[in-house]
Amino acid sequence: MAINYTFNIGSVKKRLIEGEFSNVIIEASFSVSASSDAVTEVTGVDEGGNEITCVVTPSFSYSCGGTKTFSVDGLSADSFVDFDSVTKDTIVQWLLAEEGVSSVEEFSYVKSSIQNIAQRIYEYGLEVPDQVAGDNPAGASEYVYIPPAPAEEVTSAPEEEVVDTTAETVA
């Protein structure tokens, strides 16, 4: 089963002036999406002659993204690429060089996306959903819901007059 991926180069950030150079790309954003196709199996033919298929393994998908900052240390006239000459292929090559890999499949974000899908396919094979024999319990209940009695209203007691009895008597 093939795992398909797409490595998308998004926007870039450029520094207007860097030493003697202008419009120097200092950062690139990217995203990766990976997916597998569902695997189906023909289980029979219906009355109309149409094949009946069931899914053996469903399709899986995974996406992630990130940004990478490019160092401008040691930028020289030999290594500088004018912004107008930069393509997505250029950015991909810079990203691969940053990680010391030579193919897109080895790039960490692509590799982890492929591994994620492969692991999910493997785990699905270990835990295939299925049906068990027997009937589900069913029945009829004669339960009647009786709502609780309404709460009694709390009435406040009439206010009482407080008389100060501590006053001194004068003789």
Textual characterization of the structure:
There is one protein chain. The protein contains two helices and five strands, in the order βββββαα. The protein has 171 residues and is of the alpha+beta class. The protein has one domain (3-126). Strands 1-2-5 form a three-stranded antiparallel β-sheet. It has a two-stranded antiparallel sheet with strand order 3-4. β3 (39-45) and β4 form a beta hairpin. The termini are far apart.
The 3D shape can be described as: flat
Poorly predicted ranges: none
As laid out across the biggest beta sheet, the strand order is 1-2-5
Q: Count every helix, treating DSSP H or I runs of 4 or more residues as helices.
A: 2
Question: What is the CA-atom radius of gyration, in angstroms?
Answer: 36 Å
Number of strands: 5
Structural class: alpha+beta
Order of helices and strands: EEEEEHH
Percentage of residues in DSSP E strands: 25-35%
Classify the helix fraction into a percent range: 10-25%
Task: Please state the average pLDDT score.
Answer: 88
Q: Compute the number of structural domains.
A: 1
* Distance, first to last CA: 112 Å
Main sheet record:
3 strands, antiparallel
List keywords for this structure.
33% strand; two-stranded antiparallel ribbon; 18% helix; three-stranded antiparallel beta sheet; 171 residues; alpha+beta
Layout of helices and strands:
Elements: E1 3-18, E2 21-36, E3 39-45, E4 51-57, E5 60-69, H1 88-99, H2 108-126
Antiparallel strand pairs: 1-2, 2-5, 3-4
Short description, anyone?
The protein has 171 residues and is α+β, with helices and mostly antiparallel strands.
